[in-house]
Amino acid sequence: MEYRKFFLQSKTVIGAILIALSMVAPLLGWEFTATDANTFVEKVGVFFDSFAEVIGLALVLWGRFTAQGPLAVLPTKKPDDTLQSSWMIGAFFLTMVVVGGCAQTSLVTLNPATRLYQVEANFAIAKEEAALYAARPFCSTTVIVACADPEIVVKLDEASDKTEALIEQSRVYVQALDMGMPNPPNSGALGQATASLRALIAILATIETSKGA
Amino acid sequence: MDLKGTLIILDLILTGIERSQAIYAKMAEVRDFVQNKVNKGERVTDEEWAALRERLDLAELTLERRAAEARELLANKNG
User: Which of A13, A185, B70, B77 has the most CB atoms around its CB within 10 Å?
Assistant: First the structure.
């Protein structure tokens, strides 16, 4: 039988999974409680937030440049290497634990209104970064550095619009809570807005990898 | 992979790290701000909300305008 690399041995697959994981973690309810958010976690939380996405990005880029051949859904034994699969799988699940545990250290002990403010303020930061990039001259055959790729500008705008829509739903939810409504609709909107914001940031993190400095 | 390829990847990764860290550093300031509010038992004031909305609107104006120009450019390029 032809040897095909087990899909979890693919750096591209692992990188993509890590990015997806950091986005969906809030939807799965992986949030730290006030007890969990001790002083140490508070101090390193920002690093791990950044670390998780950067590792994902790094793996995607690494995999892209070193990809070899098609992948298999189930593991197949490589004649000259019996330990590599188990090592990769172990590393993968260890990384999942780290990423999952640190996915949402920044949203702790906040009431919905304050959490909404935090999401919107973070959105403003991402949007300002996106606007700064979009304000550059468009890349062309004569402009190749410090320029904006039109396709990325469109992607940023679409991601921004999606996040904005989810934040709007969150506003409705928070207002309903403020008015004393017991179980208002859109209770998951805040988590979805956070996930959508992470997708926007993921695009921002790759901006310089596509065109000029 | 040759040395040039390795250096390109390294540069891409470092640039990505730098950008991510810059964004997350700003977000850490936001987190500290709201956490401070919670600790003091305060709410975000109307003025603070208004200032935030102003920033969002300003960024939206630029992004929206440039995205429209980008779409037009891409449409012309594609036919």
Answer: B70
A6 exposure class (CB count in 10 Å sphere: 0-12, 13-18, 19+): buried
Q: How far is Cα B8 from Cα A45, in angstroms, rounded to an integer?
A: 29
Residue A34 buriedness (CB in 10 A; 0-12 / 13-18 / 19+): exposed
pLDDT tens for each residue of chain A, 213 residues long: 555 666 666 656 666 666 666 566 555 555 443 334 333 333 444 454 555 556 666 666 666 566 655 666 555 555 554 445 545 555 554 454 445 444 444 445 678 888 999 999 999 999 999 999 999 999 988 887 788 999 999 999 999 999 999 999 999 999 999 888 888 888 889 999 999 998 998 888 877 554 444
Quote the CA–CA distance of A71 and A79 in Å, as a whole number: 16
Task: Give the gap in angstroms from C-alpha A183 to the nearest C-alpha of chain B.
Answer: 22
**CB-CB contact of B34 with A120 (8 Å):** no
**pTM flag (> 0.90):** no
CA-nearest of B8, B4, B41, B52 to A123 is B52
Chain-centroid distance, C-alpha B49: 19
Residues 6+ apart with CB under 8 A from A53: A18, A19, A22, A198, A201, A202, A205, B20
| Number of residues that make up chain B | 79
Q: Does A130 touch chain B (CB under 8 A)?
A: yes
Tell me which chain A residues have a C-beta less than 8 angstroms from the C-beta of B55: 124, 128
Look up residue B58 and give its two tokens: 């300003």
